[in-house]
Amino acid sequence: MSNAHPIPFRAILRHVLLIAGAAVMLAPFIWMISTASKPQTEIFSSELHLIPHQFALAENLREAFAKANLLRFLLNGVIVTVSIFVLQVMVALPAAYALAKLRFVGRETLFALVLFGILIPPQATAVPVFLLLHKAGLLDSYAALVLPFTISVFGIFLMRQFFKTVPDDLVDAARMDGISEFGIVWRVMLPAAIPAVTAFGIFSVVAHWNDYFWPLIVLNSEHLRTPPLAVAHFRNNEAGTSYGPLMAAAMVIIAPLVIAFLFAQRRFIEGITLTGIK
Amino acid sequence: MSDGSITISAAIAPAGATRRAVQAHGSRRTYAAYALVTPAALLMLVMLLGPLAGVIALSFTDYQLGAPHLSWIGLANYQDLFADKVFWTALRNTLTYVVIVVPGAVVAGLAIALLIQSGTSLRSLYRTIYFLPVMATLIAMAVVWEFMLHPQFGLVNGLLRGAGLPAFAWLQDRNTALYALCAIGIWQAVGFNMVLFLAGLVSIPKQLYEAAEIDGASSGWARFRLVTWPMLGPVTTFVVVISGIRSFQVFDTVHVLTKGGPSKSTEVLIHTMYTEGFEFFRSGYAAAITVVFLVFVLLLTLVKSRLADRGVHYT
Fold first, then answer.
1. For the whole model, what pTM was predicted?
2. What percent of chain B has pLDDT over 90?
3. Do B301 and A217 count as a contact with CB atoms less than 8 A apart?
4. Residues 270-309 of B with CB under 8 A from A
5. In order of start, what are the domains of chain A with their CATH numbers?
6. Cα dist from A260 to A195, A202, A249, A257, B309, whole Å
């Protein structure tokens, strides 16, 4: 029945439409790579061509790295995102375990506050947190980039939901073995929660690697710049003159996450759409 | 290895002894619970709930960064705000952005999800391609878009000229700048919505389509209208609200590409807040703008939590 005539036509139409859409989605990426590979003279020509007549990718990359300390900025990105994630886990996991498995006065209140906290958009607390860091003399430092994000109420919520599904017997057995509550968090719960922690990690790292708003507010010094700030400054300094190196710099900045995504796309999609539950 | 020892010791411990042990350790466990939640509770207070209360309180003061004192000025910030033309421009632009990006990104996301799901070949390739913009650092891609929209050497005008159509100065023209930013916003959000719709489509039971076919719904459109659309209803509402909240927060592309210009045509709420709070350091005034922004976002969130209360959940 379903082998009737319209099938091939519909399959072709599906691919035609999806490829047309994909071309639009990929256009900026292709244009970026193409421009990063062209010498100045070809970029400033009104004749459109995708494949450069003369390849200049190496020159553009060299110029990008010479004009901006891209390696340092990438390193800053790694330091900041990794510190944020590690601290988030250290703070959230114990709290999530207590909320999921222990009984204490104030538990419901605390959980209600966690749920409420999830609703607060990050821009809402920017002014007071900035003033706080100013008072503490911490502006323009790694601490300013990391500290405000050490608490992830979303992470607490996510891990608490996951811990709820871990059987109580496992926890009781660990107690009988003389493992402390603190030990249970790290030696029993964490190993059981690796998939959830991974998904949260991807969510957290992608969000903070790409964050522009907060670093823009708290940073002044060039040597502390995170990758998005670095691209923005590169663009402002070279306004309208050297598009080749600028596109090469953009390529370098997006490369780590895009490559990681291409290798583990299922996990990435899972991790990032976690925000869907937010 | 430790798993094994845990099970054995649990198996040999008599049930009564377990219960007694649990009681004896009850109070110590309560202490442990407080010790475990204290860091999180403190940080929540200092970095989240305190600042939230702070932003509301600040909005009633004349505080400026570095000023020796602050005084309570009641609603004066709000009066200034509502009398300021820039604020109304920013609000109108933000709403325009939301009203264009939300339907655009939701309809495109749904269409792509349906197309991908309607066949079996190359599914994951298409999904990867459409999801790519969600992953890529928006600031870097915004800079790429800026060059694509370059009046003389950009790809977009090049293609338009090639097709014999008029070209535009996109980001430099006050009549097109906001729409160009909307296009970038849609481009970036589509993949995210697509993934949520794909998850929704997969969860629709196959039997419903078979039943619809038996009832005479043979065309694709009839199946969509009778089964897919009603079954996706909750997902769709959810995606709309999420897209709405995210669009309200638009800032990155505005700040790096237009700085709210030309002539305030792309000024949006968070950008005004940023300028007042972190360039002019008028903290009290910026706090008042934040409160207005919060009201809009919380309204959207209310819609979402009302839906969640009705038992609508997805991942």
1. 0.86
2. 47
3. no
4. 270, 273-274, 277-278, 283, 286-287, 290, 293-294, 297-298, 301, 305
5. 6-57 (no CATH), 68-237 (1.10.3720.10)
6. 17, 10, 18, 5, 37
